[in-house]
Each structure stands twice: as structure tokens, then as C-alpha cells.
Amino acid sequence: MIARYIRRTIFAGFAILALAAAPCTAQEWPTKPVRIIVPFGPGSTPDLIMRLIAERLQQKLGQPFIVENKPGAGGVTGTDAVAKASPDGSTIGISIGGPLAINTLLFAKLPYDPRKDLAPITLLTSMPSALVVNSNVKVNDARELIALLKREHGKFNYGSIGSGSLSHLAMEAVALASGTRMVHVPYPGSPAAMTAIIRGDVQMGCLPAIATIPHATSGAVKILGVSTAKRSRYLPAIPTLKEAGIDVEADAWNGLIAPAGVPEPIIAKIRREVIETIETPTIRDKLATQLMEPIGSTPAEFRARIEAEIVRWGPVIKAAGIKVN
Known about the structure:
The protein is globular and about 65 Å long. 47% of the residues lie in helices and 19% in strands. It has helices at residues 2-28, 45-61, 76-83, 97-106, 114-117, 142-151, 166-178, 190-199, 209-218, 264-278, 281-288, 299-320; strands at 34-38, 65-69, 91-96, 118-127, 129-134, 157-160, 183-186, 204-208, 221-226, 252-259, 293-294. It is α/β, with parallel strands linked by helices.
């Protein structure tokens, strides 16, 4: 009886210690330097976002937050590095719709499974894309563009920032909505694609709005609409494509991820700290200069957004016969 009582007492003690350890682990995060993986190069939008966040977290939490750029394969290389990191909260990362959703439709095989190998923490920001045309194209809004595409079937081409990119899929969705086909011309980035539209090498494109505004202001291109669910707070005068009857949403969102298996209390602590950071007036103002809106979310909401992107773009990719690998 005494031995059994001692065993029960010891077991209960261990159980109490185990229960106490979880909240302490979360409360103390970070206990060592945190590596933040950005799957694109220095100066990219995800890099800008994470450097703003890292600086603020380092000041507040007293541990180094080290941004590590791992570009390659359209974001796959860096996203894979997050998936394969130790699940202890010492490595987190940022990623976008391509590596988290669209690439599951484009590639026969990825080095990671977004559903199994990654833990979504929170959505971070969203940036509108803008449908633009060369100033010589005789349309003034998206409805007129659709009518023109239908009248002059097969005559037009468009630029994107790469095969399988959001700008590629958005224009194929526009083509699908208009019941016509256009010729796709991929470019290595927004500046090159914008230059091609301005020169008339291609007639149109759906590109990050921040890349289009200066050229629309100068009169080199015309912005016909933004591809967001509602009007951007930073571009309130520009209608959405949905307002013109084109059911296309293609905002450039990004989110914070961790390796699968990071304890939930640590995920919750990271989420709280990061959302608080992006909501501070200083960070909001800096994001606004890039037309980015902070959009903190729960992990479940982030996961639902990823799944919604797969559902949204699957039919477009199939109809357009887009293949990358």
C-alpha cells in the first residue's frame, strides 16, 4: 500500500510538472535567437515585411531575429527550408500563395506537403493587383476590355511575372471570363513586364498595384480595376474587377509559417507578438507606402485561405492547360 501510494504521488508530481511546463515554454519564447526564412531575395516584398517585423520583435523580446534569404524555385526552396527546420519555435518563415497553394496544382511533386509539413501561424499582409492596359488600347474600364477581347478574339497578348505566377493566373481567369484566348508572354519580374506594356510589346497585364501606379499617373498605362474582393483603402477610386462583372480575385497575400509540430502555445505566442507588431502605427505606415494592408488571422483562417486558393485556381489552371513541371 505504501509503495503504491508513493508511485501515485510521484506520477502525480510528474504530471503537474508536465502541465506547468507548456505555458512556461510559450511564455518564455524566444529563449534563443530566432531564424526567419524569406524564400525570396533581399528587397522583395516578403523580405521588406519580415525585416520590419524582425526589428520590432528583437527590440521587444530581447533575442536576435535573423532574416535569412533563401530564394529559388519561385519560393519553394525557402518554404521547404521552413518545413524541414526543427519544430521548436527557433525557425519561422514567410511564404505566399504560390509555394503554399498554387504550386500544389502546378508541380507533380513538391519537396514538402503544405498540409502536413507546415504550420500556418497568421496571414500578414495583402497587396492588390491591378489590371492595366497600354494607353493606346481603346478601353476605359474592365467591361469595355472584355467586350474588346470578345470582338477581336485572339488578337491580344499580355505580360506576367512568370509562368504559374499570380499575374499569369489572373489574366487567364480574365480570358476565361471573357470566353477568349490571349497570348501569354512571361517576364522575369514586374519592372520588365511593365516596360513591355508601356512599349506595346504586350497590351496588358495584371501586376502588383504598386508597380503600376507611377506609370498610370504619367499616362503610360491605364488601370482598369483591382483584383481584390473589395476596393483597396489606398486606391478607393479604382473599382474592383468584380464590380465590372469579372469574378477574379488575385491579391498578393503572404503569411507567417512554422514547421509542423511546433507546440500550439508557442504558435499562439508568435501569432500574438507578430499581429501586435504589424498593427503598430509605425509598421502600418511603412506597409502603406507599398499599398500593403495588415490582415492578421488565426491559424485556422490562414489554412482556410490556402485551401480556398487551391479551389479558386484549380479550374483556371485546368482550362488554360498551364503546366510548369
